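Recall from the previous lesson that a structure prediction takes nothing but the amino acid sequence as input. Here we apply that procedure to MET27 protein from Pygoscelis papua. The sequence below is the only information supplied.
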Amino acid sequence: GGRERVAAVHGDAALPERLRLYDGWAARYEQDVAALEYRAPQLAAASLAFAFPAPPAGARLLDVACGTGLVARELHRRGFRRLDGVDGSAGMLERARSTGLYRQLRPCVLGREPLPAPAEHYDAVTVVGALGEGQVPSAAVPELLRVTKPG
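The prediction returns the following tokens.
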């Protein structure tokens, strides 16, 4: 079930195996996390919307480890319209692409390669449910900061 799939992708498998697991999980991901009452996308989007001092429609955001686009849906509901996303799983990117919410979606295995963006390009960067060893490693935080505008 869903709990087993969550445990598998957060387990000790090597990166290629974890990416394969995510590719295979993409079609059931949203159903599984809904059953587990996963609320991180809603909470993260609400926090970001609260922190923005101006209307969010013009803010440029990067959704790291975007998965199927759950965070993008929540950000869009709160008025954010300029969303880009990256993920290491081709299957997840394909699902995210089907939402129509992203301007750009690119493959990126953060921690092994840099983000495909220039310095200080984004007003904010989100990483929801993926920051930690075995996913987006904490060593990648400087790379997240590199592409985020100061302040």
